[in-house]
Structures are given as C-alpha cells and as structure tokens.
Amino acid sequence: MPTSQEPPALLGNRSTLRPATYADAACFLQILDQPDVSFWWGNFDIDRVNRELVLPWDGSATFAIESERDGEAQVTGLIQFWEEEDPEYRHAGMDVAVHPQWQGKGFGSDAVRTVAQYLFEERGHHRLVIDPATGNERAIRSYEKVGFRRIGVMRRYERSDDGSWHDCLLMDMLPEDLRKA
Question: Consecutive sets of 10 residues in the chain, 181 residues long: mean pLDDT of each?
Fold first, then answer.
C-alpha cells in the first residue's frame, strides 16, 4: 500500500500521533533547533522543515506527537516513516525527534511503538529499520525498549553539518520482536 494516502491519527499509550500539517512547521523547527536534537538531526530552517517533514515529496509520512500537559495537548515531537515498495525488499523505516523537555519520559518509545504497530498491522510490513548515530545511546536504548535489535554498524553512513562523516547503527525489528508497553 503506497503512502500517497494520508495515514490516520494514531493513538499511543502516552501520546496521540496525527498527520503533520503546515501549522506544525514552527513547532517542529523549535524542536529541531534544540541543541540536544540538532546535534543528531542537523540544521533546519522553515523551508527544509516544510519540504522534508511537513509534506515531503518522497512518499514518507510525518506525524506530530501530541502529549498532554496540564490538560492541554501540545506538540512534543515528530515521527516520520518511509516505505520501500519493491516487493522483493518491502520494509519500512522511521525517524523520531522529541523535545528535550519530554525526553526520557517514554514519549519517544511510545511513538515508535505506535508507528511500528501501525506499519506491521495496517501497512503489512514484515520488517522495520531505524538507523541512529552510534553515539546516540539514548535513542538506541529507547529503540531497544520497543524491540529493535542491533544489526551492525554502517561506517561513515551519514554526513554531519560540518561535512564530516559518522557511523550509524542499523537496527531492525520483526513483528514478533515488538514489545508492548
């Protein structure tokens, strides 16, 4: 099933994930500008946020992670998935960014778990991948908590804003690996 159809809102245990809109761009930029986030995600401006996250042209889908504080919903992060459509290699991958004020509280792992369940049960995938930087131990622990397994290091996989290359960890998960909250 291609991602050209907008995905539905997804209800996690801790957050609601809803398809991103242009109204989310400023919140996303504010999250991505946080030093603890931009270190891993790189530099964004509003045009890049809109082009790559809000309404990407590459077939991926982005959700705003909404969590409640004092009875009011607010955007606390974003999660994006993409799909490989070739039937010989069909699988999906994802990326997630959570505002530092909400990190370490289970919101990121809840969002990853919720999207993983959607990709397995509704989109029919048999395998999911994620590829954090090898130094991003907080993210790696969060993904392992959901059920992702370490597969191997992809050397000089991703270019940093300064032009240098760094290693990333390939992680994957099968439906039977998904850990419920």
Answer: 69 95 97 96 95 89 91 93 93 97 94 98 96 96 97 95 93 96 74
Question: In the numeric block, which tokens belong to residue 94?
Answer: 């994802």
Q: Which two tokens stand for residue 16?
A: 């609601």
Q: Which residue in 11, 26, 13, 30 sits closest to 99, CA to CA?
A: 30
Q: Parallel, antiparallel, or unpaired: how do β-strands 149-159 and 165-173 relate?
A: antiparallel
For tokens 């049960």, name the residue. Answer: 121
11: how many CB neighbours lie within 10 A of its CB? Answer: 10
Domains of the chain, with CATH numbers?
10-128 (3.40.630.30)
Distance of alpha carbon 6 from alpha carbon 178, whole angstroms: 24
**Using an 8 Å Cβ cutoff, are 63 and 18 in contact?**
yes
